[in-house]
Design goal:
By secondary structure, the chain is α/β, with parallel strands linked by helices. Helices cover about 25% and strands about 30% of the residues. The strands form three sheets. A seven-stranded mixed beta sheet has the order 6-5-4-3-2-1-16. Strands 7-8-9-10-12-14-15 form a seven-stranded mixed beta sheet, covered by helices on one side. The N and C termini lie close together (about 5 Å).
């Protein structure tokens, strides 16, 4: 069974109670993989009982603060939990950080090197810039990056991406931030779940675009949510049911786990 934890579900809005910037974790029996690292992702994960020492890789969709603001804390907590437990990652292991903007990760690493102990770890951190295509395949999960047009290109390179994750015979798509017209490109013909942002889009417009493209999605999971959802959850949940049926769509909330 695959567990997908929505640790933070807010877009870059003003702060709302009990809603933190976007961060999601995919958990298998042996491993943990983060999609984006919003402000409180590591804190929420630890307090949900998720073992941060299982972390193998972190995938950043783009370098906006609501997607990377908690990266330093995530790496710091992994080290701290290992020290407290006197166990965890060893020098033979590595945490891979995939990002379209290496300078952002380098900045967080510079901050960490000036914290206690110089952030000395008995394991390695590896930062890998990526572009379109398969960026990770360890035999357990395969991650394919597909660009979106949320951010302008920089030096001819895309700066924002979606991820298609294949694991245990299932396919999940994480939209990152996108334009509606990106849906046709980033979605395969069918997938088990589409974790799609509402920070820039209305629920009904996402439904219309999925239909227009002829894509077959078993479950639409709304995350990176905009203020209109936080201000009136009951109304937003009704809109999702009206658009996708009783079981076809879910508004994700912080601190929830979905089993696939």
């Amino acid at each position: 069974m695959i567990k997908i934890h929505t640790l933070g579900t807010a877009s870059g809005t003003q702060p709302y109670p009990q809603c933190h910037h976007v961060s999601t974790a995919i958990e298998t029996e042996t491993s943990l993989y983060f999609i984006d690292a919003g402000e409180c992702g590591a804190y929420t994960a630890h307090n949900m009982g998720i073992d941060l020492l299982k972390t193998k890789a972190i995938f950043i969709t783009h370098p906006h603060m609501d997607h990377v603001g908690g990266l330093g804390n995530l790496l710091w907590y992994i080290r701290k939990v290992g020290i407290v437990k006197k166990s965890g990652l060893t020098h033979n292991e590595n945490i891979s950080i995939f990002t379209p903007c290496k300078e952002t990760v380098d900045g967080f690493m510079a901050v960490l090197k000036n914290t206690e102990g110089g952030f000395k770890c008995n394991y390695a951190h590896c930062t890998t810039p990526y572009a379109d295509g398969i960026i990770y395949d360890n035999g357990e999960i395969k991650v394919t990056a597909k660009h979106t047009n949320h951010m302008p290109q920089k030096d001819g390179k895309y700066q924002s991406y979606s991820f298609t994750v294949q694991c245990e015979g299932k396919t999940f798509v994480f939209s990152g931030d996108m334009r509606l017209e990106d849906i046709d490109f980033i979605l395969p013909e069918e997938c088990d779940a589409f974790f799609v942002e509402t920070g820039h889009h209305q629920i009904e417009d996402i439904k219309s675009e999925i239909i227009r493209c002829g894509k077959h999605i078993k479950k639409v999971m709304f995350t990176h949510n905009g203020g209109y959802i936080f201000r009136d959850y009951p109304s937003a949940e009704k809109r999702v049911k009206d658009a996708f049926g009783e079981d076809g769509g879910v508004i994700c909330k912080d601190g929830c786990t979905y089993n696939f």
